[in-house]
Amino acid sequence: MSAVIISSVAFGDKLNTRYNRRTTMEIQRYSAADLPSLFDKIAKNSIGYDFDSFWNATQTSYPPYNLIHISNEESRLEIALAGFKKDDVKVYTEYGKIFVEGNKEKQEDDGTYVHKGLAQRAFKREWTLSDDCEVRSVEFEDGLLSIVLGKIVPEHHARKDYI
């Protein structure tokens, strides 16, 4: 009985070794030197995540934002801009990125603040867009900037109902 157990364990180890060697070869295909090109490939399919901030720790989290996945073809980026006016905010795209900038003019203080919890400082945020993504609409209402992002689907990939 023990001879059968020993031989089956040894046989199982050979299978596991072959499987591990095969999977390890797949994993070792990328090295640390390949990380920038790997992140470029990942970033092509990203909306809402700035991979440059992954490497640069100086990126700020102001202003806060939500990325809402509406459907396979549409997402909405909502940015909270309390205290900003429409004239204070600038939204533009350039080189595959969407930029949101805000410059708040300094106002004279009416008094002394006991607590100042609303940050109204100047900011610049950017998000990487994939090649097949476009800005469909930008709205600013009640301190909330809403940017609708849409995926460009080629006609030969678009859904067609025949019956």
Write out key terms for the chains shown.
single chain; 163 residues; alpha+beta; Immunoglobulin-like; 2 domains; four-stranded antiparallel beta sheet; three-stranded antiparallel beta sheet; disordered N terminus
Describe the structure.
- With 163 residues, the protein is an alpha+beta fold.
- The protein has 2 domains: 2-30; 48-106 and 120-151, Immunoglobulin-like (Sandwich).
- It has 3 helices and 7 strands; from the N terminus they run αααβββββββ.
- The protein has helices spanning 2-27, 35-43, 52-55, and strands at residues 65-71, 74-80, 89-94, 97-102, 123-128, 133-141, 144-151.
- It has a 4-stranded antiparallel beta sheet with strand order 1-2-7-6, with no helix packed on it. Strands 3-4-5 form a 3-stranded antiparallel beta sheet, with no helix packed on it.
- A hairpin with a 2-residue loop joins strand 6 (133-141) and strand 7.
- The longest helix has 26 residues, at 2-27.
- The model is unreliable at 1-12 (pLDDT under 50).
